């Protein structure tokens, strides 16, 4: 940064320290300059995140008649259906996360062990579903899983089952559909963290007497945990707020938090109730995230937490 | 008792190792015997196959053919975790999610050593590499030299039959590297484990090794004690790779060796007739005052440049055939007083016992 207009002098020490004032002014100018560069970004964050969330919070404080009240929050404790929805939401998010780990970990492991070219081709197949809308994919699952869908027809034709399996319009359907949509969110961070594991560390493990299985258990798996943790957090948090798949695949039997919000706003035009649901979901999600952070921070050995 | 490896140190017999990647031959019919307790260095430029050979010894790379016997037992198809060979990796390969203690205890844990025993042996190993009291440190809190020592402690704590080291000092700065060379050598003398060490640094190899195998292009060019390798290189590659060398073309005919019209005095018998190269180290050349001195060979030359380096000086001289040679000597006051000036004709001398010939290829 240029030294500006403040008078510079070798001999004339104004306050006993050579050019201290000019240097301080220069530092201030530089800080202001950086703030000016940041301001478009800060404005976007303010206008698109801070303001809407504040508005949401504000809306939640009014009842249907426009009176200021806490009735929207009182409802959570008074109506059993709210508590049930809340429990269902967590159950779905939890099971979907578990299913994603079950399918995603082996997949990410395979990708990380493939040669570079093969891995990048396989990665395209992991990312490919992203390019199709969630709605289309959900309907596709409906076609496959419903009572007279592909799977049930095949299984009956093959004589394996007599009655169609209840795969859609229930909890299982929601979990299958959501797992498919969420899988890349778990695989991608996990794959990235697996790629950073030093191959020499695995060689060292075997060299020091650990069988391949023991090397995986004691070295590879612990080193892949940071990636697994971030994947799990992403999937779980996305799962909590998911709407399309449970609405279509649940058959009205699986009511999740986001569907409750939709009902409150579009069916009953009760914006206060919808906003309160949003605020509670946001608060619970943030609480969960900080809990994750605390747990992982405590058990990570510094190398992870400081990255 | 302190970790004592000497009784269990075993010899390694490497025979007929072949390794190809596709059509590319990395190692061809390589054979090598390492004595029990010996410190042997594989020295060579990158791509010479030295690291591949080490990986085959450790079991991480499968050879296409050959045999490796440790104390008479064939291990060529044995999986790495059963070989009982300690290894120090170039980047140390410490486990980042474990502290120093657990890193060093890892091989003992795999061998189901009791907790009390483990504690005792890890402490001894850390003492040995002078890291006592650092067991609780995280790996990322250690300096490069300390990580190196942890890797070393981990590789010897389970008293392996053999220790392999893959350029373990290459990531350290010069001062620390030279210090660790001496420390590694002393450790080897104390513990006496059979050690195979890989490096491309010829000075490091000379400092540390009992014997050095110079590798080039997947073959062993020469295997010898460091002194012999330096004083009596057998090929042009070895002479050029280890230390500095002047190569002067000579010809062998009728049982004697000739440089231009001068018959060379030499202690070795003359080689087969034909063209050869005389290998002359810069410090074996000296400035001759009396050209008729007997028992030495003299080469007339012209001084190109003289470079003063404090403790020594380097003189670049041009022989009559236009070939440049380098002479180095210490700055003793008698030598310093008679330093030639650029352009001055001089006579270079070389003792008959220092004449070494290699094939001209």
TrEMBL record, chain A:
It is found in: Cell membrane. Pfam families: BPD_transp_1. The keyword Membrane applies. Gene3D superfamilies: MetI-like. InterPro entries: MetI-like (IPR000515), MetI-like_sf (IPR035906). Keywords: Cell membrane, Membrane, Transmembrane, Transmembrane helix, Transport. Its main location: membrane. The chain crosses the membrane at residues 32-58, 92-111, 118-144, 171-192, 227-248, 268-292. The keyword Transmembrane applies. It is a multi-pass membrane protein. Residues 86-292 form the ABC transmembrane type-1 domain. Belongs to the binding-protein-dependent transport system permease family. CysTW subfamily. This is ABC transporter permease. It comes from Mesorhizobium dulcispinae.
């Amino acid at each position: 940064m240029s030294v500006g207009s403040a008078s510079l002098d070798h001999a004339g020490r104004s306050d006993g320290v050579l050019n201290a004032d000019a240097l301080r002014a220069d530092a201030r100018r530089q800080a202001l300059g950086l703030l000016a560069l940041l301001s478009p970004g800060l404005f976007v964050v303010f206008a698109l995140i801070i303001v809407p969330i504040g508005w949401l919070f504000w809306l939640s404080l009014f009842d249907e008649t426009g009176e200021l009240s806490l009735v929207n929050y009182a409802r959570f404790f008074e109506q059993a259906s709210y508590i049930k929805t809340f429990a269902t939401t967590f159950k779905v998010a939890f099971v979907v996360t578990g299913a994603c780990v079950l399918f995603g970990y082996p997949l990410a492991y395979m990708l990380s062990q493939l040669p570079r070219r093969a891995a990048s081709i396989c990665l395209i197949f992991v990312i490919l579903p992203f390019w199709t809308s969630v709605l289309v994919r959900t309907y596709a699952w409906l076609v496959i899983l419903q009572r007279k869908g592909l799977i049930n027809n095949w299984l009956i034709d093959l004589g394996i089952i007599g009655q169609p399996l209840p795969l859609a319009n229930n909890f299982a359907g929601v979990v299958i559909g959501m797992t498919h949509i969420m899988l890349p969110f778990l695989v991608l961070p996990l794959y990235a963290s697996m790629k950073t594991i030093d191959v020499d560390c695995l060689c060292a493990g075997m060299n020091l007497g650990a069988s391949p299985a023991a090397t995986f258990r004691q070295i590879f798996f612990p080193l892949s945990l940071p990636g697994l943790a971030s994947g799990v957090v992403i999937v779980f948090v996305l799962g909590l707020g998911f709407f399309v798949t449970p609405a279509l695949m649940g058959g009205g039997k699986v009511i999740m938090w986001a569907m409750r919000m939709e009902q409150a706003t579009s069916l009953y035009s009760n914006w206060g109730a919808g906003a309160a649901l949003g605020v509670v979901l946001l608060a619970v999600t943030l609480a969960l995230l900080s809990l994750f952070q605390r747990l992982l921070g405590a058990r990570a050995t510094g190398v992870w937490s400081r990255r | 008792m302190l970790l004592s490896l000497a009784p269990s140190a075993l010899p390694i017999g490497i025979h007929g190792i072949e390794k190809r990647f596709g059509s590319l031959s990395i190692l061809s019919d390589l054979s090598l015997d390492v004595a029990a307790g010996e410190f042997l260095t594989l020295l060579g430029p990158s791509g010479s196959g030295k690291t591949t050979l080490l990986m085959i010894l450790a079991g991480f790379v499968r050879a296409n053919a050959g045999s490796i016997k440790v104390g008479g037992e064939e291990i060529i198809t044995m999986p790495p975790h059963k070989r009982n060979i300690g290894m120090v990796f170039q980047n140390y390969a410490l486990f980042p999610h474990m502290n120093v203690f657990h890193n060093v205890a890892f091989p003992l844990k795999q061998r189901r050593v009791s907790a009390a025993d483990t504690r005792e042996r890890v402490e001894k190993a850390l003492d040995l590499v002078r890291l006592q009291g650092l067991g609780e440190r995280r790996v990322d809190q250690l300096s490069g030299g300390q990580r190196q020592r942890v890797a070393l402690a981990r590789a010897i704590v389970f008293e392996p039959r053999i220790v392999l080291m893959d350029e373990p000092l290459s990531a350290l700065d010069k001062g620390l590297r030279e210090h660790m060379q001496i420390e590694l050598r002393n450790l080897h003398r104390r513990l006496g484990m059979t050690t195979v060490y890989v490096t491309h640094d010829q000075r490091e190899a000379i400092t540390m090794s009992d014997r050095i195998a110079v590798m080039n292009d997947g073959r062993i060019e020469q295997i010898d004690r460091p002194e012999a390798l330096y004083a009596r290189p057998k090929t042009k590659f070895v002479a050029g790779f280890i230390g500095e060398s002047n190569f002067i073309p000579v010809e062998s005919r009728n049982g004697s060796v000739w440089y231009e019209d001068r018959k060379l005095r030499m202690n070795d018998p003359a080689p087969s007739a034909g063209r050869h190269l005389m290998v002359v180290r810069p410090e074996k050349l000296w400035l001759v005052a009396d050209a008729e001195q007997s028992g030495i060979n003299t080469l007339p030359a012209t001084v190109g440049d003289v470079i003063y380096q404090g403790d020594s000086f380097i003189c670049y001289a041009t022989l009559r055939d236009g070939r440049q040679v380098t002479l180095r000597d210490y700055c003793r006051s008698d030598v310093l007083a008679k330093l030639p000036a650029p352009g001055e004709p001089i006579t270079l001398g070389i003792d008959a016992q220092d004449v070494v010939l290699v094939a001209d290829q």
